[in-house]
Amino acid sequence: MHKLLARKPDAVVWLIAGYFCIQFIVRLLQPHGLRFDESQQAFVSQWLTLGYDSQPPLYNWLQSIVVWFFGLSLATVSATKNLVLFLVYLTYYKLAREVLEDKLYAVIATLSLLTIPQLFWEAQRDLTHTVIQLLTINLFLYGVIKTLKAPSLGSYAFMGLALGLGMLSKYNFTLVAVAAMPAVWLHPQGRARIMDRRFLLSIVLAVLIFLPHGLWLLHNLDIASGRTLGIMKQEAPDTAFAKLVQGPFKFLRLVLVIMAPTVIVYAIVFGRSFWNSLRASSEWTRFFGALFVTIALLVLVLVVTIGMTSLRDRWLLPFLFLMPIYFCLKMQAAGHRADSHFRRFIVVPLVLMIVIPAALLARPNLPTLFGRYEAYNVPYSGFAKHIAAEESKTPGLIVTDSWLPAGNLHLQWPDVPLMSRFFDNMKIGYEWTAERPILLVWITKDSGEALPPLLAEWITQNLGEQYSAVDVKSTSVPYHRGRPEDQVGFSYVWIYPK
């Protein structure tokens, strides 16, 4: 493989495409329970609207369009995720090619993404909005660099398109957009590019693309910001001084945790060449350096001003996944040839391309070996079979109290409208008749558990007090791939119109 890539570096695109085809197959071979973000996408695929919840709608729109054409299934959920991940790697390679003269360094930078656990593991299992944000960051910076190198009407239009899509991916994309301004300004051609009248085209396109969702955002700020800000402030200390210390400390710790595996791989593979190259500088190392420093300062300002103490690695991943390009730029600036180390380096991603899918396949398929069950193993299909055998009716509406069961239940009944009290703003029309009764479902720890207050409230608000007395039923279903005695409890209520 190293000889092929050394002769034809662009063949890395086919290697990556093959890898994500394998990942798609691996997901279909896992139990069909959905994890949190997968479940959310299955749930929100019922709508194509300007806004959903605390995240911008770009990934939701993509998933809804795929479901619209091909129907809801594990295959359509997984295919969407793996397609976006492939595009992340593809655009990363294209971005690296723009700034790295040596194509092998572009290959090294791209395959180095497999050394970032939050990308090769967490993004594969659970991330959606973050994944499409990585794609838009690549597109945006590609447009910026293209414009710096060879400005044209097309490059300014592309930059504006990517900027607008980025704002629709995740709200913290704003930090990248803001940080790009000083990075461009400090570039030798940057000021001329900013002062160019065609830059107005970029701004206008970005505004027009974001505007429909922006109007929704203005009228739904509580939905868009409340939950995220609440998470950021979880377990925050009481005093301002403690917040001032704890927030930056957690930020720096997460930076080290995310980048440590990549740095270790580079230190082993490239040795002193890597460490010595960190002092080297070039036009593009300064560009990315300014970008990173500005983003870090902006994050620290947010940490201090709004008391962000409960930081998560997925929030910092979009600002750090560009580091392999930066490291390769440094080694190129220091005059080190990529081919002198490429044979040693390629072993790492090739091994990971085998180990990662194998681990992802083994973990939910052998839960007793690992000592715990995952969301994959929850037997929603078994519960659906129980319901079909017991009532012999298709629900006219399904209502659940929490996030995770919402998409999983919709996956079992893709043609049945479903609502969740966790996403209370998401409403949908439904048919309620004696042949299409309403089904309320929740996961329980004990059989005979009472109707959750959220669902009792939903009945009162939507059906009336006369339906508040309900007959709660319960059943237990064994975990997928689990021991027969290990079971999940489901409670449910059928409501027929009077």
Main features:
mainly alpha, 498 residues, five-stranded mixed β-sheet
Would you summarize the structure shown here?
With 498 residues, the protein is mainly α.
What proportion strand? 5-15%
Q: Residue share in helices?
A: 55-70%
How many DSSP H or I helices? 23
Strand order of the largest sheet: 2-1-3-5-4
Radius of gyration: 25 Å
Mean pLDDT: 92
The structure class reads: mainly alpha
What does this structure look like?
The chain is mainly α and 498 residues long. Strands 2-1-3-5-4 form a five-stranded mixed β-sheet, with helices on one face. The N and C termini lie far apart (69 Å). The chain is built from 23 helices and five strands.
SSE blueprint:
Blueprint lengths: L1 H6 L4 H18 L6 H9 L13 H13 L3 H26 L3 H9 L5 H9 L3 H21 L3 H15 L5 H13 L4 H6 L3 H21 L1 H12 L7 H31 L1 H6 L5 H23 L7 H8 L2 H11 L5 H27 L1 H4 L9 H12 L5 E4 L2 H10 L5 E3 L17 E7 L8 H10 L10 E6 L8 E9 L3
Parallel strand pairs: 1-2, 1-3
Antiparallel strand pairs: 3-5, 4-5
Helix pairs in contact: 2-5, 2-19, 3-22, 5-6, 5-8, 6-18, 8-9, 8-10, 8-17, 9-12, 10-16, 14-16, 14-17, 14-19, 16-18
